[in-house]
């Protein structure tokens, strides 16, 4: 799945806090906290809303993210409204050149748990055929009825990253997505099994950064939190 970018010098060391331009770079943001009732269940790929109280409380976090992100870049979002709304709230706080141009890419949606959507947390383990991952609700190979496994998510996110890296070569790409999809992106960048990538913590409104340089992927940051105060 690896492709070659032409005539891009490989930046081995980053000696300056400011990341260099003309690099194929992805800024991956997990959506904000969802509303309280949804948090009581396994909502997965259900289209649940954000928590309005949390949006007001975490306004400084959106401002911090807006300051951290590149002003010029292509914006993408999962089709779920919690991701789209998060992207919109961040854009409100910043002076972005492509403001409000948020492209929807369904390949960055959260893992679908199919028939298990909406299950209360205390009842979920009883549905599993395999032992859950220590830091995820199910193992990478567990595939819920009419759903998908993390292995499936890894495949679709990996293809999406390679496609967008080709389309937006030497540019910044901002993607507002979900915990499972961002872990899959990190697994792709590191060429590791998705089961191992589930060990990454990806919190709400966190930022992770990956790059593709001369066909090789590297990780710049994982779960970088904005300043909320």
From TrEMBL:
Annotated residues for binding of substrate: 30-37, 82
Active site: 31, 110
Family matches, as InterPro entries: His_Pase_superF_clade-1 (IPR013078), His_PPase_superfam (IPR029033), PGM_Phosphatase (IPR050275)
Cellular component GO terms, alphabetical: cytoplasm
Gene3D superfamilies per UniProt: Phosphoglycerate mutase-like (3.40.50.1240)
GO MF annotations, alphabetized: phosphatase activity
Protein name: Histidine phosphatase family protein
Organism field: Swingsia samuiensis
